Amino acid sequence: MLSPDRLAFEGATLDVLIADVHVRVEAPENVIAILNTTLNTIPRSDAKRVPDIVISVRANEAWEIHGLEGSLKLMDAQSPLPQVAGAIVTTIIAHVAANQKYTALRAAVIEKDGRAMAFLGDDWESAITLAAHLHGRGWRYIGSDNALLHAETRRVFPVQKSLYVNSTSLAQLPLQYRRAVEASPWYVTPAGISFYAVDPLIAGGTETWSPSASLSAIVVVDGLIADRPALETLDDVAMSSDRLARLNLDWDQVKIVDLRLGGIVESCDLLEHWFEATRS
Prior knowledge:
CATH architecture of the largest domain: 3-Layer(aba) Sandwich
Oligomer: single chain
């Protein structure tokens, strides 16, 4: 069994099953409550079972997230609880990936007909917005902002969680998301930035999540903007960057482009056309 050093604990627990790995989170009740909402579609595991991984969260002079083999993540004591929950989710994903020899893929991943497309890059709000619009067109999520990648087979597996959407991006979401936004809890950071935890299941029903798919394409979304959307291949320097090299993928099998974002609808039209063309 994999577990961190045992610590004195007072609070609540949450047991989830991700990629057949039983993860237990021990944390204050208010943090567990937010995790329950954020991870509401992830299967729960039997709390009577011995977990494969234990994540212990403590609130002292700073937030402490204790993971495997003595790993420790510290956050300011004034950090909003959703940010703490987000850091816990990131820790969970990293530990599950290590347990199963997967790569933790920080990306919004969607699929259609068993073929997946991942959005990664610095313009995270645009990546989520594009994924939501394609979801509205019949695509399904593999991961709203994280997924698990088995590089050798190119299979991607889901991490089902809410979309964290900045309030300034809400107007860009498709109409199918209106009810999901209205039902979403919202939070404000100390810097005054507000964001919503949007459950895509409310927008898409049973057709929201896919169990897995083959990674066929990657779209880099770094905030480049044009009057009309455009897709460009990446040069050798970009292809050798750490964020791509760490994926250890066969680039003859996975197509990759850089997106110059135009209007969201027009950008989605172009992406669907290009993605279909990569099939041949």
